[in-house]
Specification:
Number of strands: 19
Structural class: alpha+beta
Strand order of the largest sheet: 2-8-7-4-3
Radius of gyration: 23 Å
Oligomer: single chain
Distance between the termini: 21 Å
Helix content: 25-40%
C-alpha cells in the first residue's frame, strides 16, 4: 500500500476517541510527563549574548500550530546581487540540560506524535508550545542561520550562531499564498516566491525531487468530522526550500568538520525504478526512456487521479532513508540523500524531533571551528537506532489513525456504492490493491472480483467492511 500523508486536526466523538485511546495504550505511547521533567522544563534557559531581536522574523505554519520551530527573514543583499536568508531555529539545548530528566524523557519519546484528538509532544508543552517556541512577540533563544545566496540562489556563505530573536508575525500557508498571488505581500514575504523558485530550479539542476503528494486531512466540522484531500500549495514548496537549504548547509558544515549526523537515502535499486515504469504504463502516463524520473514527477498534476496515484507510488523510492553518523574525519560511504540529490541533515525541527538538537550543536561547533560538546559525541552512536525506532512508531500512529477515522466515518455505510480510483495493485495478487474514493477522502484496501484491478482507472466499489474496533475498511468492485 502506498505511503499516505495525513495532517490531523482535532475531531470529536466518544467511540472514535475510545479507539484512539486504545491505540495509544497498544503502542505504549507516553502521555504525561514525570514531575522531574516538568520541573526542569520550567527552569529559565541559558541566554545567548548575541541579540538579533531587531530582525523582523516571521513564521509560516498551519493555523493551529503553536510548536513553532522556525522563523525566517528574507532580504536582498546590500550589494544588490543575491539574497540573504536568515533562518532562526528554536534552541532546545538552551532549555535541556544534558543527562537530566528532560533529556532522558526526550530520548524515550524521540518524536512528537500527532493523533486526531491530541498531540503527544517530544517536550512538555510549557517548553515546546511556550518558552522555546518562536511565537510572535516573544523573545527567546535560537540557533540563527545566516545564508547568503547569489543572484541564482546558490549558497555563497554560511554563518550559524546562537542569538536572541523575536518573531513579529505568525502566518499560515493559505494567506501567504493569497498575498503573494495578489501582489500585496511586502518584500520579506514576497521574496519567498523569488528565492523558493530559484532553489527549485537548482533542485532540478542537481536532479533532486520533491513529491507533491496530496494529503489526507481530518477536519472537524459542525461538531463532527470529515476526511478531505489537500494538494500542497506553491507556498508550501517555497517554504520547504528554505528548510532544505538550511539542511544542506548543515550537512556541508558537518562534513567539512569531520563529525556529524546526516539524513541519508541510497539511490533506488533498478528493480524499484522498473516497477515504477510498469506502474506508469498501467496508468497511461507517458515516460520516455530519455526523460528522467525527476523531470517526469515535476510534470505531474496531483489533482488528476492518475497522476496522484503515480505520485503515491513514487513514495516507495523514499523507503530506506535513515541517519548516518560519522566522526573523526572518517566519512561514510553514503553521504547524500537521493531525493535531495545532495548531502542533507535534519536540523530545523528540534521541538518535534530529537536528532535536530544534536545536529544544531554539531553545526555550531563546526562554524566556530571547535570540537563538539562531549554530551553530543557520547550520544551520537545510538542516535540512528533511536531515530529509526521513533520514526517507525510515528509512521504506525499516522497509518492507524487514518484507518480508525475512516472506519468511524463509514461504519454505518456498509453495502453502499462509491466512486473511486485504483491507486495500487499487488503484483502477485492483481485482484487486491488500494482504492482512493473521490468522496469521502478515503484510501483503503480493495479485494475480490474475478479480474485484475484496473490500476489508475475509475471504478465503482462497494463497502464491505468498516469496523472501528479493528480499524479495518474494505471495499470490493461493485
Amino acid at each position: 500500500m502506498p505511503c499516505r500523508h495525513i495532517r490531523a486536526i482535532c475531531v470529536t466523538g466518544a467511540p472514535l476517541q475510545a479507539a484512539l485511546c486504545a491505540l495509544r495504550t497498544e503502542l505504549g505511547v507516553p502521555e504525561s510527563f514525570p514531575p522531574g521533567v516538568l520541573e526542569e522544563a520550567a527552569r529559565p534557559p541559558h541566554l545567548p549574548l548575541h541579540d538579533a531581536t531587531d530582525i523582523p522574523f516571521l513564521t509560516i505554519d498551519p493555523p493551529a500550530s503553536t510548536d513553532l520551530d522556525q522563523a525566517m527573514h528574507l532580504s536582498r543583499r546590500e550589494n544588490g546581487h543575491g539574497y540573504r536568508v536568515r533562518y532562526a531555529i528554536a534552541d532546545v539545548a538552551a532549555f535541556v540540560a544534558p543527562g537530566g530528566a528532560l533529556d532522558a524523557e526526550a530520548h524515550r519519546r524521540v518524536t512528537t506524535l500527532y493523533f486526531p484528538d491530541e498531540k503527544v509532544p517530544l517536550h512538555p508543552t510549557r517548553l515546546s508550545e511556550g518558552t522555546a517556541s518562536l511565537l510572535p512577540d516573544q523573545t527567546c533563544p535560537a540557533v540563527l542561520w545566516t545564508i547568503d545566496l547569489d543572484a541564482d540562489g546558490r549558497t555563497e556563505s554560511v554563518d550559524v550562531r546562537r542569538a536572541l530573536v523575536r518573531s513579529r508575525a505568525k502566518l499560515d500557508y493559505a494567506h501567504v499564498q493569497k498575498w503573494i498571488d495578489e501582489g500585496t505581500a511586502e518584500e520579506p514575504l514576497a521574496l519567498l516566491k523569488e528565492i523558493g523558485t530559484l532553489r527549485e530550479r537548482l533542485e532540478v539542476e542537481r536532479g533532486g525531487i520533491s513529491l507533491n503528494v496530496p494529503e489526507q486531512e481530518i477536519v472537524e466540522k459542525d461538531g463532527t468530522y470529515e476526511l478531505v484531500y489537500r494538494a500542497p500549495l506553491p507556498a508550501d514548496a517555497w517554504n520547504a526550500q528554505i528548510s532544505l537549504l538550511t539542511g544542506m548547509a548543515a550537512a556541508d558544515l558537518m562534513l567539512a568538520h569531520g563529525t556529524g549526523v546526516l539524513r541519508t537515502l541510497p539511490a533506488a535499486p533498478d528493480g524499484a525504478v522498473g516497477r515504477l515504469r510498469r506502474t506508469a504504463r498501467a496508468l497511461h502516463i507517458d515516460w520516455p526512456h530519455h526523460v528522467s524520473y525527476a523531470h517526469l514527477v515535476r510534470s505531474l498534476d496531483p489533482h488528476l487521479p492518475r497522476h496522484a496515484a503515480f505520485l503515491q507510488e513514487c513514495t516507495t523510492l523514499l523507503r530506506g532513508a535513515g541517519y548516518t553518523v560519522f566522526r573523526g574525519g572518517a566519512l561514510p560511504d553514503v553521504t547524500s540523500h537521493a531525493a535531495v540529490a545532495a548531502p542533507y541533515a535534519h536540523c530545523t525541527a528540534p521541538l518535534r524531533r530529537l536528532v535536530d538538537r544534536y545536529a544544531s550543536e554539531l553545526c555550531l561547533a563546526a562554524a566556530a571551528d571547535e570540537p563538539p560538546p562531549d554530551w553530543v559525541l557520547t550520544a551520537l552512536d545510538t542516535l540512528p537506532k533511536e531515530m529509526a525506532e521513533g520514526s517507525r512508531r510515528a509512521g504506525t500512529v499516522e497509518r492507524e489513525c487514518v484507518d480508525i477515522v475512516e472506519a468511524a466515518l463509514l461504519k454505518d455505510r456498509v453495502g453502499d456504492i462509491f466512486d473511486g480510483c485504483v491507486v495500487d495493485v499487488m503484483e502477485r495478487q492483481p485482484t487486491v490493491g488500494t482504492v482512493q474514493l473521490e468522496s469521502p477522502a478515503v484510501v483503503a484496501r480493495i479485494e475480490g472480483g474475478t479480474g485484475t484491478l484496473p490500476l489508475g482507472e475509475r471504478l465503482r466499489v462497494r463497502l464491505t467492511q468498516a469496523d472501528l474496533g479493528t480499524a479495518k475498511v474494505r471495499f470490493a468492485p461493485a
